[in-house]
Amino acid sequence: MRRLIQEYMRPHLWRILLALLFMALVASSTAMTAQLLDPAIKYLFIDKDPAMLTLIPLAVFLVMILKAAASYGENILMNYVGQRIISDVQIQMFEHLMKSDTGWLRQYHSGRIISHFLNDAVLMREAVSRSITGIGKDFLTLALLVGVMVYQDPVMSGIAFFILPVVIGFVRQLSRLMRKSVNRGMVETGTLSTLLSETLAGSRVVKAYGQEQHEIRRVSQSIDRRMDFIMRGVRARSAAAPITEALTGLAIAGAIYYAGARALSGNMEINHFAAFLAAMMLAYQPLKSLATLSTALQEGLAAAARSFSLMDIKPSITDKPDARQLVVNKGRICFENVHFSYGDEDDEALRGINLDIAPGQTVALVGPSGAGKSTILNLIARFYDVSSGRLTIDGVDVRNVTISSLRRSIALVTQEPFLFDDTVRANIAYGRPEADSRDIEEAARAADAHEFILALPQGYLTIVGEAGMRLSGGQRQRLAIARAMLKNAPILLLDEATSSLDTDSERQVQEALARLKQGRTSLVIAHRLSTIMDADCIHVIVDGRIVESGVHNQLLKQNGVYAGLCRSQFNDAEFAETPKTPAPKRRKRSNEAVEKTD
Ligand SMILES: Nc1ncnc2c1ncn2[C@@H]1O[C@H](COP(=O)(O)OP(=O)(O)O)[C@@H](O)[C@H]1O
Ligand SMILES: [Mg+2]
Fold first, then answer.
1. What residue segments make up the domains of the chain, in order of their start?
2. Sign of the torsion formed by the C-alpha atoms of 271, 274, 280 and 285
3. Using CA positions, which residue lies closest to atom 21 of ligand 1?
4. Which end of the chain is more exposed for a tag (fewer CB within 10 A), N or C?
């Protein structure tokens, strides 16, 4: 609560104060409306004073104008503050998400994060604006109306107040029900957005496996569940009004009975009764708001607690206070007895890796899937930090340099290149937005992408579609290579950059990659051994350890794991330049390889 006030409300202090002033005006004019009935009836109907004929309607009109203007001002200000709070919370959350550790982000489905991101900020705004309005307007209005009631008829007020706690109790009960279902509806919204983003991203798999009906069923079930929760909330909310109204009716009936009894005995004046009744009826609205305030507040505070605890998770991969800029002269990469686990310490992904990659060399990592090859690249880019041991670039521990300078020195091309739904040009220039057209074209040429880009409907200005879906796999990959080319980093990491391509596109991409590797220290993971046969050194990784190292021919002669992998890949094709068939599913292949080498 304190943090919500200090960080999000304080910057808008003067707006809030002004809004409170307007609220006070609304509250007093509301009370005034009821109070005015007293003189109106007294002077016009009982005393029949002609001088009051214009005065009283004028006063009523002015009070209403005042209330309207103040309401308008208060509304605008409170909405501004509320929306500003939503925006501030969301910007901070997003900044935090962008800076979070890869490992942390991966624990959550993006759909759930998005739904949190959208909902929690709304709940926080609700709590803030409801409590300000609650104190500034509803409470004050109620107090003033009660003042009018007591002033008009203290005894009758006593009768009416009898019903008050009952009304409050009821409304609170119902609003708790309501909130509960709203909350469960929100959880369901998270599930729904997860489902939606998943099935849309995987639409080809859905279709290929004929699971459209299954997905339609899953999504509609989620939508139905959500609707069910929403309807429960609606029922509770809809019940709240009539029940409170019925109870208020009881209070009014009681007051009328009492007033009537007194009128019959001749000591009840109509003007007092009218003003009293008006005040009582007007009290209903603020009463209802106040009764539901605490639930809204609790919800908002719970949302704030969730968001704050999320924002307070300190990323573990950060710059040290004395971090230096990494200046890569040569680009020597050394692993010194590196151990690493993703979580469970007994289950290490890397178990003592020693690697020395000389500047300008191309080093290949091969091995069965799950061996730890990608993990090695993840550590170089510092997506994760080593559990023990050391990883140096040009002799400097990567943990001692700034992350930005480290990542500037590294270009990473992965199996599934990620393209943004933007122009070809913007996608290539992603790492260097200031690059000019000449540089971009040059990079595209070197990546063998220039030709096909020109053939696109709008050339370099063609929008590539969500995740680049309007391009073929080979085209996407060549754009990714052009992006890496333009970045011109001294260290190149290729993680199965060609594994998802057919042999033709692979050949094209290979040529582009060969150009990209020139003059850089390159670490290449390849599933197809044909693509790494000419590497300066090949390391075979099995189960987090390097089991064999050497050049292609040496390793073949050793007749160990590598030779086994080769045999299983090239079959009888006597080490053809390129395998005849594109490799089938990775996992299956590598299991075969492991079995054979066992
Ligand atoms: N983000 C992750 N969280 C937990 N475990 C992971 C993660 N990524 C990979 N692993 C595990 O670490 C091991 C090595 O994975 P990886 O380096 O991706 O293998 P490779 O690239 O050789 O196929 C595997 O057992 C895998 O299950
Ligand atoms: Mg991998």
1. 2-311
2. negative
3. 374
4. C
Pocket of ligand 1 (CB under 6 A): 106, 342, 349, 367, 369-375
H or E segment and range at residue 264: helix 212-264
d(CA 278, CA 275): 5
- Ligand 1, atom nearest to 106 Cα: 1
Q: What are phi and psi of 575, to 5 degrees?
A: 50, 50
Task: Name the residue at shortest CA distance from atom 12 of ligand 1.
Answer: 349
Q: Which residues make beta-bridge pairs with 410? A: 491
216-221, long-range: CB < 8 A, 24+ apart: 219/192, 219/195
Q: How far is CA 392 from the centre of its chain?
A: 34
For the CA of 365, the nearest atom of ligand 1: 22
Give the closest residue (by CA) to ligand 1 atom 19: 370
User: In 172-186, which positions are buried (b, 16+ CB within 10 angstroms) versus exposed (e)?
Assistant: bebbebbbbbbbbbb
Residue type, 401: V
Residue 243 alpha carbon to ligand 2 centre in Å: 62
Task: Output the residue whose Cα is nearest ligand 1's atom 25.
Answer: 370
Q: What is the pTM of this model?
A: 0.78
In angstroms, rounded to a whole number, what is the distance separating the alpha carbons of residues 91 and 94? 5
Residue nearest atom 1 in ligand 1 by C-alpha distance: 103
Q: Beta strand pairing status for 537-542 and 362-366?
A: parallel
From first to last of its 598 residues, the chain has per-residue pLDDT tens of: 888 888 888 999 999 999 999 999 999 999 999 999 999 999 988 888 888 889 999 999 999 999 999 999 999 999 999 999 989 999 999 999 998 888 888 888 888 788 888 888 888 888 888 889 998 999 999 999 999 999 998 888 888 887 778 877 877 787 778 778 877 888 888 888 889 888 988 888 898 888 999 999 999 999 999 999 888 888 877 877 777 778 878 888 888 888 888 888 888 888 888 899 899 888 888 887 887 787 778 888 888 888 888 888 888 888 999 989 998 888 899 999 999 999 888 889 999 999 999 999 999 999 998 999 999 999 999 999 999 999 999 999 999 999 999 999 999 988 888 889 899 999 999 988 889 999 999 999 888 889 999 999 999 999 988 777 788 888 888 899 899 889 989 999 999 887 777 777 777 778 888 888 888 999 999 888 878 888 999 999 999 999 999 999 999 898 899 998 888 877 644 444 444 444 444 444 344 333 333 3
Residue nearest to atom 6 of ligand 1 (CA): 342
For residue 369, give the ligand 1 atom closest to its CA.
23
CA of 592 to the centre of ligand 1 (A): 19
The answer for residues whose C-beta is within 8 angstroms of residue 298's C-beta and 6 or more apart is none
For residues 48 and 365, what is the distance between their CA atoms, to the nearest angstrom? Answer: 102
User: What residues pack around ion ligand 2 (CB closer than 5 A)?
Assistant: 374
Check: CB of residue 596 under 8 Å from CB of residue 563. no
Q: What is the CATH superfamily name and number for domain 2-311? A: ABC transporter type 1, transmembrane domain (1.20.1560.10)
Best mutation site among 342, 346, 384, 496 for ligand 1 pocket (most ligand atoms within 8 Å of CB): 342
Distance from chain centroid for Cα 381: 24
